[in-house]
Write a structure and sequence with these properties.
Blueprint: H1 19-41, H2 44-59, H3 63-66, H4 95-116, H5 120-154
Helix pairs in contact: 1-2
Length: about 160
Amino acid sequence: MPRGGKKGHKGRGKQFSNPEEIDRQMKEQKRLEETAGAEKGSSSESEDSSSEDEYETKKRSGVEGLIEIENPNRVSQKNKKVTEIDISAPRELSRREREEIEKQKSKERYMKLHNEGKTDQARADLARLAIIKKQREDAAKKREDLRKAEEAKGKP
């Protein structure tokens, strides 16, 4: 590969700066700086309006300067001062926080109903406990009968 740096595009000629053009651009830049300095010395109202105009003209370049469209979906962030913030106002909860609180409340509601015996699971538990209690009573009665029968056999 040959050395020597980058070559220009095919068919494109090299552009050289014209010294007269450079002088003209430098004079234009000095004139803008002088007018900006002179405007600073004038009243603050004219300063604000002229600096805003200059800012808008300098800010927009290329396609931005040609097309005058504002994005309706773009929401600009407004910074609030510390004095403007209202601490006592209720804070908006996020979706996750709302769901978490709702989940806790529903769990508490269910446990309250469960303790009162109004849920299906509580009814099933109570029925199972009743059956177990009945079986234990029957087993205790049977043991008592066997013990009495052994005592009766052993005393004659």
